[in-house]
Write a structure and sequence with these properties.
The structure holds three protein chains of three kinds. Chain A is an all-alpha fold. Chain A is built from ten helices and no strands. In chain B, helix 4 crosses helix 5 (125-138) and helix 7 (157-169) runs parallel beside helix 8. The chains are: A mainly alpha, B alpha/beta, C mainly alpha.
Chain lengths: 323, 360, 327
Amino acid sequence: MAEPEAHPPEQTGRPRPTLTAPKGPRETLGSAPEAAPPVSRSQLQLARERFFHHKPAVAGLVVFVSLLLLSTIGGHFWHYSYSDITAQYSTGPSLQHPFGTDTIGHDLFAQVLLGTATSIKTAIVVAALATVVGTLIGALAGYYGTWADFALMRFTDLVLTVPLFAVLLVLANTLGKQANSWFWIAIILAALLWTYLARLVRGSFLSLREREFVEAEWAIGASDARIIVRHLIPNALGPIVVNATLTVAVAMLIEAALSFVGLGIQPPEVSLGSLINDGQGAMAVLPWLFFFPAGFLIAIILSINFIGDGLRDALDPSQRNSS
Amino acid sequence: MSDHLLEVRDLSVDFSTREGTVQAVRGLSLDLAPRETVGIVGESGSGKSTVALAILGLLPRNATVSGSVRSGDTELTGLPERALAKVRGSTIAYIPQDPLTSLNPAYTIGWQVAEAIWAKGLDSKRGAHRRALELLETVGIPRAAQQMDRYPHEFSGGMRQRVAIAIAMANNPRIMIADEPTTALDVTIQAQVLDALRAAREETHASLILITHDLGIVAGMADRVMVMYAGKPVETAPTDEVFYRSRMPYTLGLLGSLPRLDDERRGPLRPIPGTPPSLLTLPSGCPFRPRCPVAFDRCVTEEPGLDPAGPDHRAACHLRTELEAGDTTLFAASWEDTTDQVGGDEVGIHGRSRSEVPHG
Amino acid sequence: MWPFILRRVLAGLVVLFIASFCLYVLVSLSGDPLAQLKANPHVSPRTIEAARHQMHLDEPLLQRYWTWFTGFLHGDFGTSTTGQRVGPQIWVRLGVTAKLVIPTVIIAAIVAVLLGIWSAVKQYSVTDHTSTALAYLFYSSPVFVIALVLKNFLAVDVNKTLGHTIFYTVGENTPGVTGTWNVIRDDAAHTALPVIALVLVTYAAWSRYQRAAMLDVLNADYIRLARAKGLSRRRVLLVHAARNALIPVTTVIALDFAVILGGTVITEIVFGWEGMGRFLYEGLTGPVSPDVNAVQAWLMITATAVVAFNIIADILYAVLDPRIRLG
């Protein structure tokens, strides 16, 4: 039987109609029917195609991966460690010290590599935690509604009302200085950023819940957990992934700001924000102390933003407005 | 100088997309006489809506238009936007397909109708406002005076479509193009909208190009019918000719697949098997060949032109003169399943076997 | 509409109350304002005890909160750990920050809307690509990086080239300047760089949003009908398209207010402004920190502003979009 083809959209400006998925083979009750039959595999391929079509996203991916590898692996091969104090202090970029040295004699290249690794590591942990927590809570609120939803919305109101940065300052002040580890900073940031994802997932679930396939699942007696995990979350996955990626960028920005004012990553740990802080006094005379960490910071955040945009293009093609 | 209001010659529209070039319209020609209603019929993807937008110059950026569209002395294709804007709304008016999204949600319906008049400098704001009230009454908006100040979202689809018709007739255009005006609406509402369309036609004395996939609508409103398939017109004739004496298998298939109250034949419906071809990669020869019960070897190699098949009747089929005019039993009934493959490779053709069809 | 506003205000008050309590507890537990005093060997235990009593630190936490709360209801922000009353200080600081925030929001909003609409209308043009690239760049730059660049490179270089100080980099004004015209000029010279820094990080996200909204609108059916009516291109763009495209971004701007306040903290630190942001920072990290009353005062003012702007955002949305009616 010929499969219905997707017709080129009538040029009335309306979005392309979705492929009507051919029904999969008859499932026996008890085995979990897939929400999206075989077509989902080719959807993934389509998404991948769309991503690689997005040139800035690909460039961002290349840059990000390069910097990630450089900062993690490269640090091991570089002959200076971040805490080595050399005899050359306040020198500009040279063959021996590609990024120059600071006023004490640290090799800036080693420091930037470590700072990059720390910043990226922190941001990724933040995004991971925030995504997991946010998705779970948002899913529960969106699926069950009523009081769970109400509680979530009031709590996020609370979090969003108080300027984020202030709360972070307070929290970082209270907990961060004592805990003295990048991980705690990550936890603090995640503790506030999950709310954005929760709101997003809640919104998705509220609308997904009304779809017929959910009713069908209820009718055959599928458990709530199964419906949420195997059907609703995969369908909401697109915006979740995009948002998780952008959360990494946001987390990097915030962590850098916190570290810059002395409340984020503490010595002896090094972050790009703290490096910029260290270098700001001598910035006018020793500009490399500022430009290398700042450049790396912007480069990473920019690439992550591009990747996020590419993912949005790939996973949510109804957004026709990519640059 | 002919007295046709609109002369379309060999209109073609290509869309360049990521997957390739889509040939939405492939050589369409049409003459529109004063006070004439032409129905353009076809299924989704036949290119009929594209024709409407091409005439008005409203196609998106990735569209390439070739051919000629003349309104009076003016060549419309390639006309700069400013000049086109003068033609639109005044000479040629457009009635859109989806009433739920075609009106600006931020302005009242009365304002949007009046704007069609005063924004083009054709009357004062107050005069336009008064005229808008008249127009809304003509199209059948109840309590128009109060309803004028309401917003589109406060109206049903059928009402909004009537507002769109009021907008179209506001400046007494010579030509109205209704692009599937009832497709998005319930059947019960369709009648009301068609009434409004007739009222508009009456008052403005305009010619009407009525684009639809619904043969029933066309039967009630059109003087002439043009059937489109895969971007090309495949049959044009006066309405009765098309309905009772069609000479193109596709049209016959369409007619045969309609349930009819007045049908003496008490038999099953006869659908056209298969699906229309992709406009990205058209097969060679006649595009209807894969689904045609009477296709033969010439249909594979040579695409038929729109050639005469009777009085004021043209059909794009090599067998147009041999076919029994109006024979809708060309296609087999839905549950008769013979696996006789005639002319096509994808789909099993039912009904007449090859030996019964004359080769020409 | 009024029932809606009332409900939101009440909800806002509840949120404010809870926030004030949570923050009070967090801040109080985050450290000891007497730490430096205690570390000083020359200070007698009696002095320390007196100081402790004066700051009410000998009272239990809940009682301290209650004292603050009742005081606040009477309009009294309490006393800072520095000994001065918080009230007068914070209003002055508010004025300073307002000098930074208000121009920022206005300029960033105008720039973002104009750029966003322009980029959408000229989609894929060189202008579009350039402004998108710049928006991405600024969107990805921390405000302190931009602030530092402006402060240490732009200001210095421009001032040197022109021979005298156009851009000041420290403080919000020069003390002792008199005469209205001189004061205005002096203020502007001090305000320029901080505002530029904040505007650059703020406009970027908004302009991308505006561009997307405008593109959505331009592809809408009602725009096509507007063109089919024979309206001029300019009319279609301004009266029909922009009118609708501005709706979503208006609420985004109102809601982003809280984010801007975060940015002002950093900007004030970098440029040495004595505003609310610095007030908070010093309250948390200064020599007699944590200064609970100072932080609470900061919170109440900013949180009130955020709640107010959120409500304004919703009202604005309803005003602009006839499809929305507040219930």
